[in-house]
Amino acid sequence: MRDGLISVVLVVALISACSNDGSYGTEITSDEFETDYSSVYAETVSFSGFENKDYESELNISIENDVNAAVNEFDALAREAAEILPEGVKATMMITQSIKRNSSGFISLIEEHYIYSGGAHGNTSWYPRNIDVLSAEPHNLALSELFADESYREEIERIINEKVEEEPEKYSELWEQPSLTEESENNYYITDEDLVIFFPPYTLSYYAKGFIEFNIRLTEIEGILKEEYKKLAIMG
Predict the structure, then answer these.
(1) Residue 32, strand partner residues
(2) Which one is predicted more confidently, 5 or 45?
(3) How far does CA 111 lie from the centroid of its chain?
(4) 59: left (phi over 0), alpha (psi -120 to 50) or beta
(5) For residue 124, which of 83, 94, 81, 150 has the smallest C-alpha distance?
(6) What is the chain's alpha carbon radius of gyration, rounded to the nearest angstrom?
(7) Are β-strands 25-34 and 194-199 bridged in parallel, bridged antiparallel, or unpaired?
């Protein structure tokens, strides 16, 4: 993967200890290197303090494997791009980890991939993980799993449409009215205060607008959350 390797840097970026508020230890490490045809910066996050040690190990291995697979896939792309990129221009990859929530036993994070391999601009993708660590079988939760029944779709879309109407200037360049789709089941994250539904570039507007996000107060939708997830609004 790293033929022509120039440098490798491993950095521990963040460590937070377990605490009584249901948060968990996190450690972000970064691996940075260059070849004669590419430049890569890749962060990996690992967690500690889970009661379910099997799932803790499973999650940490999954994140590490996903990052390594993405870097390997990019390496093949970068080799091909080297044949068409101008002299002195390298294909670039950046993977970063952003922890959106780590409280009340719930983890929400976004793994962001930026890749440039030619053309006018690079491309950015978000890969969310939303996990109720305290559940009997922790896993990456689909949006629908947070809610008591299917009526959540109508309510979430109503709130989003209200936001569009309230801020016409901000959302004036949307191609269509936002609606929950199959992709929306994964395209969200949770902060201490909000459920955030996001739409990737080109989904609702042109590339320069970036990700279109709609922040919905957890307290506003507490009534339609499953009982076990009402804690997200109460603790937020």
Answers:
(1) 9, 41
(2) 45
(3) 4
(4) alpha
(5) 94
(6) 20
(7) unpaired
